[in-house]
Structure formats: structure tokens, C-alpha cells
């Protein structure tokens, strides 16, 4: 049997029971993000994703705060590979890994919006970004070994580099990586430990999974697969769908217009796939819903239903080959505890 790994989400751009407000109901203060992390740990999740990007607080600093205020959960720290040298990223990750006593995971995010990346001074095109990501991962993994090495490539150069002090973990930190373009999947095949997808229909997830698996075989590697989505779980189906529509019932029109522009400007293949799914209808598979994608970029789909129905939907992904789930709910404190009580115990029977 296969073990399923469950992670929650740190809402570092604000939180609340509604999406699409001009101002979040709960600001992403240090105290609140610690509360989310501690609720995540109490609920029984294995880890928590700390996102990266323009709307979010710095992921390394938030990850450090989480490490200092929890005992067990693993921060999955997302960061962009184009803004700092891989040897500097190696030092950052090694420092946090030491503080976390080996709990650190990293999510390398190439980025899918040239407009957003341009706000940080990065005007690199889609294909070149992935070429840079591949070279970045090559260098950072060499650095994590602790060996002295030199590198001269298209994007990065270093001479007699060595990571001191080294990692707490042995030899490497697990790398989570996503993307639906051929370039992204080829990078994942070479360097990732877990390939992440957004919550597309199970058949489409399985199709991409098999594609990446075939690519990975060329490099004599294996990796695991994950899905990022939202969850709305209630005691009855009627209550669950009422709660789902409640989340998007207060959308500010200026925010809606801004998000429409974001969807139009992206060069992310994965984002375009999300948009196409939403255009095909609000519901798909057994209990999946596209409503959140109307007002949130990135992961835009949710599983909606009773604990039994959510279990069934997650099991369908597991049967397709998915073993990692990065989940979220609104608000994140209450929904983490609810999921931990009503759904997580149902997967204790799934062991290695």
C-alpha cells in the first residue's frame, strides 16, 4: 500500500471566510500565521506550504517563524530560482534546515506571469526561465552535497564553492516542483522529488503523471506525485455546497477585474489549463468544483462534500498515482482543524 502525505497552506496574503475582498478579514500577521501553523500541527498534517510571489510575505522568513513555533510539521518553503544565486539559496535552505532539525522541504517555483515577474525585475521568457531553473537546480543540488565544486553555465558561475555549514538532512532537501509545459515536466523528471499539479480532473492528472513518469525513466530516476487543491467538508452535502458558494459570495468588483487581467496575461500552461477547466463548467469528476478559480490564480479547484465524499475523491487521486496533497480551506485555522478531525483519520489505514 501507499502512504498518503497531507499538507496545509499558510495564507501569507491574508485569510478569512470570503475570497475576493478588497482587504482580507484577517491580516497575515506573525501571530496569525503562527496560529495557522499550530492548528495545522494540531490537526495532524505532515507539513504546511509557504507560498511565494508578489501578494505574499517572504517565504523564508515565514518558514523560519513556523519552525520556531512548531515541533513536528514540515514547512514546504516555496521560492523563485531566478532572483538569487543557487549557492545563496543553498545557504538559506541549509540554515533553515539546521534550525528545523531536518524538517525543511522546498518548492521551486519558476513563475508563470511575465508581468508579475517583471515587478521583481525579471523579464526572462518562458522557455529561458525553465532553462535557468534546470541549471539552478543542478547547482543547488551540488551545493547541498557539501562537496567543493566549480560551475560555469549559461546563467550561473561559481568557483570552488562549498556549503558550510551543511544540511541537517543527509545530502539533500526534498524538492517539490510543478508545471504543465514540456519544459517544466522535463525539469521535474531530472531534478524533482515530488511533481506537483493543480487539482485538475483525475484523468488529466493521471495523464500528466504518466508523461512525467516516462520522462523520469530516461534519467534512471523515480519521483512521487502531488496535487494542490482546496477542500470544503461539512456533515451533509447540502451544507458543504452552501459553504462553498459562501466563500465567493462577497467578491469586490475591482478585485474581480484585476484577476481577469491576471488570467489573460499569464504565460503559464498550468494556469491556462485551470482556466479551461473552469470554462467547461462549475463541477467535474464526482465532487470537484471550479468556483474558487474565478477569483484566485493558481490552484482554483476544490473538493466539496461530506467526509465520506472527500475521502472518496482523494482516494481517486491516490488510485491514479498521487501520494501528496497540498490542501487549503477558508478560513485556514478552522478548516484545518475540521479536516483533521473529519477526514485525516480515514487515511491512517493507508500505510507503506
TrEMBL record:
The family database entries (SUPFAM superfamilies) matched by this protein are listed as: Bacterial luciferase-like (SSF51679)
Signal peptide range: none
What residue stretches are annotated with the Luciferase-like domain?
22-324
GO biological process per UniProt: alkanesulfonate catabolic process
Keywords of the record, alphabetical order, are: Flavoprotein, FMN, Monooxygenase, Oxidoreductase
Q: Which GO terms describe its molecular function?
A: alkanesulfonate monooxygenase activity
What Pfam family is a match for this entry?
Bac_luciferase
* InterPro entries registered for this protein in UniProt: Luciferase-like_dom, Luciferase-like_sf, SsuD_RutA_monooxygenase
**PANTHER family per record:** ALKANESULFONATE MONOOXYGENASE, ALKANESULFONATE MONOOXYGENASE-RELATED
Q: What is this protein called?
A: LLM class flavin-dependent oxidoreductase
